[in-house]
Design brief:
9-stranded mixed beta sheet
Amino acid sequence: MPRPHRRRRAARVLFVWATVVALLPATATAPGAASPATTPPAPGDAVREPARITGTRSAGGRAVELAVYSPAMDRVIPVRVLPAADPAAGAPVLYLLNGITGGGDGGNWFDRTDIGEFFAAEQVTVVNPIGGAGSYFTDWRADDPVLGRQRWTTFLTGELPSLIDAAFHGTGANAVAGVSMAAASVFQLALAAPDRYRALGSYSGCVRTSDPQGRAIIELVVRSNGGDPRNMWGPPQDPAWAGNDPFLRGEDLRGLTLYLSAGTGAPGALDTLQGPGIGQNPGKLADQLLVGGILETVAAGCAVGLRDRLHELGIAATVALRPDGTHSWGYWQQDLHDSWPLFAAALRR
């Protein structure tokens, strides 16, 4: 069996191939109306036990890791939580989603950023689910032979929030932010559950799902984790691909607080041997500069395209386009810091 670090590198290499495809001209780019996506029940769906927290353990400091049983996926999902500064008082919830690996390999918000320190004095509960590698955090229409049952929309918008609110005195006000793969997922979750979130943060992602470029990226992200995209939304001509495209359904984002960000792929201040996560390792730095540079170059183009689409629709959004920076956690930490004041204001409304 391939070692975890080799699988991660293979996933990044395959994703680079997707970005190369994404740089090619699209053959069909005209936006149009798209019907909301619907996902048929997964095969074998049956009445199951209710969603519940089955266990809790310390995750360092005041953070905890919950074991949450999901009836939709019929398995236990690890969910890391940083309770609010005053855990006895009501608090809104900020959900943070990981990228292509799902976070189980250490590529998650708790292990790669300073969220414990940054939110130490904030009256907000921070929630970081672990898992969902290559899933786009959506509800797949069929169980996948490799990835199994993926019903993340149901879990994240239906099963988990009530458990978090009950355990951590939630106020019902929520925001969600995600990086890379999950930068698209945050929009899809908001489209699937229009009243669930007040604010969205999309850091270094490509949201389009129904044009040739978007489908190529999704195809390789899913397949790099062993999955079959046809089990997600069906064949490319299936209406579900357009129904899950935030670019086509931009009008449905009106009223949300939106924050988009991306670098250019050029080396920045954090792309050095002393940068976060590099640990003086030349190999890691080379990977971040080469692979992370290409990925961020494409993400920048995607951010500009979505910015222009939202402007065309008259939908307000904060768009932070950095003059440099790669596809890496140090910059996503900065993005979270920069977007938090907007999220905080939305959660107080």
